[in-house]
Amino acid sequence: MYFKTALFIALVFCGTALAQQDAFDSFAGPYQSDILPLLSRYCFECHDSDLSEADIDLSAFDTFASVRKQPKTWIKVDHILRSGQMPPRKSEQPTDDERAVITAWIRSYLKAEAEAHAGDPGPVVLRRLSNAEYTFSLRDLTGVATLDPAREFPVDGAAGEGFTNTGEALGMSPALVDKYLDAAKEVARHVVLLPDGLRFSEQTTRRDQTDEAVERIRDFYRTYSDQRGSSAVNLQGVQFRTNQGGRLPVRPYLAALLAEREALKHQTITMEQIAGRSGLSLKYLERLWHELQQKPGDPAQLLDHIRAHWQKSDPDLDELVRQIERWQDALWRFQTVGHIGPAEDEDRTQAWLEPVTPLTARRDVHLPLPEPDADGMVTLHLSVSDAGDGEGAGTDLAVWHRPRLILKDKTEHLIRELLVDSGEPAGDSESILVQAPHSRVIRFPAHPGASEFVVGTMLHEKAGPNASVQFHVSPQAPVGLNRLHPETPVIVADNSPARRHFEEQFEDFRELFPAALCYVDIVPVDAVVTLSLFHREDHHLRRLMLNDEQAATLDRMWDELRFISHEPLLLATAYEQLLEFQTQDRSTSTKVEKPKDSPILKRAAAFQREQVQAEPMHLQAVIDFADRAWRRSLSPDEAQRLRLLYEDLRRSEIPHEEAIQLTLARVLTAPAFLYKLETPGPGEESAPVTGTELASRLSYFLWSSAPDDALRQLGDSNQLIDEDVLRGQTRRMLSDPKIRRLAIFFACQWLHIRDFDRNDDKNEKLYPQFRTIRGAMYEESVRFFEDLFRNDRSILSFLDADHTFLNQALAEHYGIDGVTGDDWRRVDQIRGRGRGGVLGMATVLAVNSGASRTSPILRGNWVYETLLGERLPRPPANVPRLPDEAPDAGLTARQLIEQHNLNPACAKCHRHIDPYGFALEQFDAIGRLRPQAADTKTRLINGRDIEGLEGLRAYLLEDRRGDILRQFCKKLLGYALGRETQLSDEPLLDDMQRRLAAEGHRFSVAVEAIVTSPQFRRIRGEQYPDQH
Amino acid sequence: MTSSTHSNANDTHTLSRRALLRGLGVSIALPWMESIRVWGDMAADEKQASGPPTRMAILFSGCGFHKHEWWAKGQGAGMELGRVLTPLNDFRERMVFIRGLYNAEALKGNIHSSQTGNLLSGAPLSAGGTIRSGTSVDQVIAQHIGHQTRLPSLVLGCEKANPSVHKNYSMLYSSHISWSSPTTPTPLEVYPALAFDQLFKDKAGRGDQSVLDSVLRDARDLRRNISRRDQQKLDEYLNSVREVELRIERAGKRGELQGWRPTRTTPDMPRPKDGYPQDIVEHMKLMCDILVLAFQTDTTRLCTLKLNNDHGTLRFPHLGVDYMIHHLLSHTDNEDWLKVNQFFLEQMAYIARRLDAIQEGDGTALDHTILMLCSSMLHGNHDANQLPVVILGGSGAGIRGGQNLDYLGQSDRQMCRLYLSLMNRMGVKPDRFGDATAPLAEI
Hints:
The complex is a heterodimer. Chain A is built from 39 helices and 22 strands. Chain A has a five-stranded mixed β-sheet, with helices on one face. In chain A, strands 8, 10, 11, 12 and 14 form a five-stranded antiparallel β-sheet that branches. Chain A has a two-stranded antiparallel ribbon with strand order 1-2. A seven-stranded mixed β-sheet of chain B has the order 5-10-1-13-14-4-15, sandwiched between helices. Classes of the chains: A alpha+beta, B alpha/beta. At the A-B interface, helix 7, helix 21, helix 22, helix 23 and helix 32 of A face helix 1, strand 9, helix 8 and helix 9 of B.
């Protein structure tokens, strides 16, 4: 059976059956004539059918054909012979020549066998998502990065090449099903139902999800508006600030336009470019530019003043902004929002931002009296300006009426000085008439007990229809009697053309410069009782800033807020309560409006209908979600099953939202989500996986998660089958931040430092700082590999990099200065500081130490097994105990071990591993450099003398480069495939090593070799014989 | 530690080797689903049980015990105990000390994981990157009698599993003594709060059953399109979902039980805090309390409590022993190692005392509980040729206390014979288990 399969694979991958037959023919003869007799002589004593020591019965291999049935046994034989463990010393030993004959034959046979099966996808046991894959898949699917549903799951085991993504180690049990169901329900609680679908949120309660929806709108508002402008409010003893934000950001717009004014004029820059660069609204930039570039009118109006200023050759931006803001203050005011009482009509809702039109026919001007001078006299300037229209003569006839002091007893005291002194009486004895512009000073004795100066102001009846003036009373001399002032109202006659004229120019200004764009608070907080849950006021924003698409986005967010919060229903409830409350207070005769006619209740009823209409859309959204969660299209049956479940739940009185959550939980408990299911081809023959399946394989390999939309699409359309497309996607994914997961679950897992941030192995008394620094130690390692993978560095740099990533705490731990703050950064030239590569990383050094001291044995063994992929010979029987390692032993770790190794039985193993550990003795048990020089000179088993980290590194990179690379490739391949590597992978590993050597050992070369290999792209046939 | 991977000789067990090999690989892998019955299927006599049921708890402590201090001399009340066992002094008359049993399969790999993953099954362990052991004795019993209680079994631990491969064996082996199938270690509950919830939380939310029913149909559908090999793996899922469904069903029928009633139905302790306890003393006490509570409320009759991992990394600051992790300490045989051993034995004594304080029928709950403690090696240098075993209680099930049994040197000293004995005491009577065909006569 096996042979037939081998043959078939050979057909597919290795040319003709004939060629293969020939290749193996040459082994059969020598096996019978040379090998079998040697085995019989040296091995059968123990390894025969009777005894079959170590479960190996070599006598069963009586023909070469039988050898070929169990190549795995021959790998063991090869290993055991090479390591010199067999035959045992007590037994008869083959001569060197004989040994050479056997091993040469086995190796060439195994090579031929490997090539004959090269590319075999191998036995990949159906893989459940590991806890990490489960978590990342859920986070990526929902977009909620804080989900941690597996936090209390049992730890996944490792198998295959030592990784937690291997099918064998990923079991299922009733207890786990329970946990999956609970976790899925927990995740489903994060669903947010929208008017036409669903999304996920960090939050689980309606209240929190509502707050989140509000915050989304606020974020949107904030991208267009300024934070300025809060005012303090004291509401029944509760103090807070209100009216903050939503302000029109005048300055950045003016500044952006001013900076490019010439370029815009000469059309060497487009408005789109400015908008793109500055992040400002294109629409408002264009509008503002259009308005400001117009020729100022004559006579000048309010906007014309601003235009004139703008159009100067070197306008003062500060002054311009100040001017606009002063006018905004004059022409707008903020009010509290939210209405009280059974306000039926939404239009009655009071606006937050209201226009102010400072025009009046008459008014009293009040001024607190300034301090008198040394002579006991008070000086005031009384002036009348022409409101900027330049139409003084004959028209702007203004009247000062009854200038007076207000005494403390509220009595008045006329100031005769003004009336006596000013020439022209205005028709009565208490008024005088002036022609604007006009200014004069009055001096009068301070009157004891007077606090305020008051004077009436108005136009004279003989003033023209276009008359407009502004009155000013001040201790200071007036300025600018020919322009319009924002601080004081303009006096115009009611219904006069002048009034209309000003109304228009004020309106023009407000159109262009509203004080605020939008009510960012959204939730009114400054009214005692309110029936407004949310106050929307953003028409200025829409009008000035938003294009159609942006406006639609905003509308959608508001619609979602309404839907998520159930606002119409809440409002109706609040309304009914309020109504009841009011009824209690009133006499029975007071007629209360019938609730059923209320618009509020009608709106609530309409909302309920809308909710019902949305239900099928929610269900469809769950089915669409399943398509992503299951990483493939659903069959009609599957989609139907989800619908049936939902209907079933509804029938059992479970409300819509809960039924949707349960259906979602069901999607996330389904085998299609939890398992990486693939459909094999018929028969024994391996077949390519589909594009969709390949997308999943790739995504779980590199990102530990489900494919993103781009990858999924290429998979579904089978374009991913194309090698160039596959390579392109691989490169894209390698450069994505999600590659951090590969750093953790491949690199850190391989090096046995995964979860080091939770390492609890160290003695707290000796190393009190360890708990606080271990997280940083881990982060360094993760960042190092993330950087290596993302930036496609040489694989070998994991040993010889001259850089790493540090923050201050870890840098201090390492004795590297010049790194301040908690931020992580790349630090170069660390080899000069005794570090560089994983051998100098605290994680590796600490994880291979004891609780209280270093362990050269652990470190050495780590180098030997983890980096070099070696295996120690089987330990001999009755090995003496290790010496007591209590800290008071008074010997260094090295001395202890060397003492131990005086025993040859111990030395047999230890001389393979300990020297590597001795070389790293300069580092203490938590990876610090010891202050005193340690003895780091050592002799390796092959006689080579090395010293310290540098010596060890040089040895590994020069003498053992091939082994290091082989081990890296083997581990990466095992991780990618989710299985142990096997004989038939050897040609691929050879090929990877060749390519790496030719292409600077770049990481992507190894990854691309794997993902384009048949192992990665094919699956064994359905009927492939089970070898277990 | 690498130098600790010293094996004992392969040549010490050649005598019985051939005989043993014949018995290997036939560990009974019961077809799981067939053995599960719903409560309603129970035979009439089961319903009418009038006395307290027998429970069994197996405690495990990794890395063995102090080389010179694990021993017993004499019998009954006059039994002398090595210092490791002093916490059990009060229980000598109700104790069975057993020396000299072993698992032949555990001698092959000679490293922690290879002797722990099959401790309770005697099955061969698959090395390399694959996982295969055998269904453990507690789970085989659970498959037979688990349907009588709300939970078939409770599988607890005080140290998280180790996710790596060590010396060519998955550390899953080192982290699990209970196996629900040859390829699936029973997941350990290491969070006290969640273990407590297993006992008392009403797991069946409304709609749960519909959800499970629906995914089950998915699984049956999908099963048709995957390879045979994958089908086996998917069956784990199918069976697990079905089991949870059955459990929900059973929960609904609770209260119909006739005859004997447990002495307690509600917790006598507050729900433990969420999260993983930072203090090992507190952690172990909580898990012991939950074990006792599970038995007292008859929520389950089977529990394994893995006090630590074999090759584990616990430290014991409360004993002043935090300069070295448990595994490394096991290679020392010093006074600190002894203190740590005693701490583990105190857990057993604590459980025994608590059970003994519960009056049940004409005895105490300890009389109706077979409480066993074992390790996968006698001491730190991986000697799996004579496993340390001590049993307390169980007189109600016919276990005779005060015995000091030594099988070393005898033939047929398989650990699995002990398991056959225990299975018999629990009312399960297979013809063979692991590499054994006959129970130990003494137990």
